[in-house]
Amino acid sequence: VTTGSDPYDTRQDQVATPDGRRALAHSKAAVRAFRPRRLLPAVLAAVVIAAVTALAVLDIVAAHADQSAEILSASSMRHFGTTTRWDDPAVLAIGSAACALGLALVFLAAWPGRSRILPITSADDHTVTGITRRGLRRYLVDAATAVDGIDDASGHVSRRRARIVADSSLRDARGLRSQVTDAVAARHDGLALLRPLQLRVTVRKRKD
Amino acid sequence: VNRRTARGNRIGLALAGAVLFVAGAYALARGLDWNSGALGRAASQLITPGMRHFVTTHAAWFWSVTAIVCAILALLALRWLLVQARTEAIGTFSLERDKRRGTTRLPADAVTDAFEDDLQASLYIQQASAVLVGSADNPHLMLIATLRTGADPTDAIERIGQALSRLRTVLEHQTLKATVRLRTTSNS
User: What is the ipTM of this complex?
Assistant: First the structure.
């Protein structure tokens, strides 16, 4: 009876070597380090929950001290509750809204999210490095503008793709696209992103 | 916001979302009369006379319990809100990590200020903001480095690596963990 990994599975071997395991752990740590913190939805949810529950407490205490005191207008809520049926359109609307909002919150919690930072391969096991997508975009756009014959360039960097659009006023722009692609690719490759981007370069001919 | 807060945020959002979803799904299912046997009739009121009777006969403890539960939820939500501001920055750094030989503690600010100055003296980095988080014995350096206009990030990364290695040597802590975020200035 054999236990453990299949000796012929080279893919497992790669991960099973100490170096491979360390590299894998390191890249996972890098991706995790730059995951969105869900700050804004958490703050909003906390504020809403705190406000509603605190008001309810105040309301109950106020009503206990003075029968006529009302903060949340409990009597109108009681009126709504005692006169409205479950199949009332208002109840169905509130139910749908709660369902949708609940799903959205669960989705925000479960989905890793799009990080604004792209992790970079690090030579040092104890350091995790990343660059903002905006910073990378500017770096790649600069490479395109540095090519002779290119007047201006713009770009967009997502988690998987970098798209660079360069403008040229040269009459003969043949070969320019491969030059720009080479320049952009050299910078992109030099940076050694943990997940290399798909590069797409377009050269537009500027009208005189 | 540190990583522990980030995990807390996801757990909090998942819980709040699950409660909202279940409540909303119940209201929808009942209102659309999907399973009146188990859920109750769609044609009945939200608050039935039976429920009102129950509340009025048990008013003494019912409202107290409701108030206490709401107060606990309010406090939990407030705590959730407050931890968002938590940076977990540590005040001191242990220089000698072998406890048998005693410990020398250094203000964390002194460590990070020197590191920031080292980086800001370089051609590539306009601004560096470093903070030590974690614990005095097992710190983690968090760095946000703003590149100078036109600076090459690969050069900046190399420079940061050198500064980090100097820092590790000075602190006699070769395994000091670091998280580095590179950004560019916001103009242009």
Answer: 0.74
Tell me the pLDDT tens digit for each residue of B118-149.
999 998 999 999 988 887 778 889 999 999 88
Mutation target to probe the B interface, by most B beta carbons within 10 A, among A129, A140, A157 is: A129
> What's the first-to-final CA gap in chain A, in angstroms?
77
CA A35, A41, A45, A47 torsion-angle sign: positive
pLDDT given for residue B96 in this prediction: 66
Nearest Cβ partner of A94 from B27, B66, B67? Answer: B27
Give the confidence band of A4 by pLDDT, cuts at 50, 70, 90: very low
In single-letter form, the type of residue at position B99 comes to K
Which element (helix H / strand E) includes B181?
A: strand B177-184
- Smallest CA–CA distance from A63 into chain B, residue: B63
User: Does pLDDT of A3 surpass 80?
Assistant: no
The reply to whether B126 touches chain A by the CB within 8 Å rule is: no
Provide the number of CB pairs (under 8 Å) joining chain A to chain B.
224
User: Which residue in this structure is represented by tokens 């539960």?
Assistant: B69
pLDDT in tens, A122-164: 888 889 999 999 999 999 999 999 999 899 999 999 988 999 9
Transcribe A79-128 into DSSP letters: HHHHH-BTTSHHHHHHHHHHHHHHHHHHHHHHS----SEEEE--SSTTEE
Q: Is A172 exposed, middle or buried (0-12, 13-18, 19+ CB in 10 A)?
A: exposed
Are B154 and A97 inside 8 Å of each other by CB? Answer: no
A84–B181 C-beta distance less than 8 A: no
CA-to-CA distance for B9 and A108, rounded, in angstroms? Answer: 10
Task: Choose the closest CB to A85 out of B1, B44, B164.
Answer: B44
Nearest CA in chain B to A58: B67
Cβ–Cβ below 8 Å for B84 and A43: yes
Contact A53 B180 (CB under 8 A): no
Residue A78 in this model has a pLDDT that exceeds 80: yes
Contacts for A123 with CB less than 8 Å, ≥ 6 apart: B161
CA distance A24 to A112: 18
Q: Considering only the beta carbons, identify the residue of A85, A109, A132 that sits closest to B183.
A: A132
How many CA atoms, within 13 angstroms, populate the side-chain half-sphere of residue B153?
35
